[in-house]
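Summary: Need help interpreting a holo structure output

Steps to reproduce:
1. Submit the protein chain below together with the SMILES for pyridoxal-5'-phosphate.
2. Request a joint structure prediction with the ligand placed.
3. Inspect the structure token block that comes back.

Expected: a single structure record containing both the chain and the bound molecule.
Actual: see attached output.

Input attached:
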Amino acid sequence: MPANRAPAEIGMTVHNVDTPALLIDLDAFDRNVRRMAQQAANAGVALRPHAKTHKCPAIALKQIALGAVGVCCQKVSEAEAMVDGGVQDVLISNEIVGHQKLARLVALAQRARIAVCVDDRENIAALGQAAQAAKIALNVLVEINVGADRCGAAPGEPALELAHQVSTTAGLSFAGLQAYYGSAQHLRTAEQRSEAIGAAIRHARQTRDMLHRSSLECRIISGAGTGTYSLEAGSGVYNELQPGSYVFMDVDYARNRADDGRPFSEFEHSLFVYTTVMSHTTADRAVVDAGMKALSVDSGMPAVSGIEGAEYVGASDEHGTLKLSAAAPPIRLGDKMRLIPGHCDPTVNLHEWYVGVRNDRVEALWQITARGPGF
Ligand SMILES: Cc1ncc(COP(=O)(O)O)c(C=O)c1O
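--- attached output ---
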């Protein structure tokens, strides 16, 4: 059996989809994609959705058709898959290190508009050499650490020095700043998120102003995720948003609270792991065929969609254990159900296909061509 066999065929009813499979509720998905496009347009900022969530050129092209300027990727391999799938504009919102990856990066920049982030002098020099060898001018953003303490140079003077180096390195063109605050995305209250992003905005503004005073044009200030995008959009500083998870919304994001303290419900759950009950030997326990090979539990367990009294309580490699309370409806061997993933990005990475469903029928099969460890 080929490894990339799809679990469904176009036109079949959802019940006949083999499991475990990754379903997209196309109506909810369309609403999510449109809503974010509209929000960015209303704020007058560019939308560059993050493809690390979906890893699928077919979805990227839908986002672009609705106004996105391109997509972000984290890895050269993801960017290659996007360009192979027809995407013409990719920001690698990440640092790329190592001569093999740099060679592939500049080769990609010969056939699409590519930008990349840096936070290190030696990396800038290596990028310049690779770009010169490929006879291209590579767009480069200096990443600043706005609070997440992951990648990124310190804002202000250290970032300014790197921007100067980029602008004076043959083969490179300074394009702006990457200022993403990842750990702020899942802060649970609106107040916490607002405080964190307030600090990020101050860092980005201060660095931008220093660049301007040094006559370095900072065309792009890019950042934001699903949890905080409205803050960056309204900042007057960021002019490009890179949210990813909004297309699918996972259980972890649904734990965020909105301004009024209610669950963050701006986007709908559109991604599900479809699974079959494979064992049901006691009244209070059922076992489904979606364990850790079919979903990621790094941000908590998946939720069982639409079945009261059924809770997914444990994942092993090929098994998921459901605890059934007295409120649960009768469950039979072979029953199929939808699980809402705890964390969408790593769950998607485990699958080869999306099965897009509408009105109880399979309408689309989209291959997840950018999946994998990402070399
Ligand atoms: C650099 C960068 N930008 C944007 C995103 C998108 O964030 P989210 O999926 O929370 O919308 C991520 C996610 O990890 C990221 O690493």
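--- end attachment ---

Reviewer comment: Residues 50, 52-53, 72, 93, 180, 182, 185, 225-227, 242-245 surround pyridoxal-5'-phosphate (CB under 6 Å). Residues 190-213 form the longest helix (24 residues).
Status: needs-info
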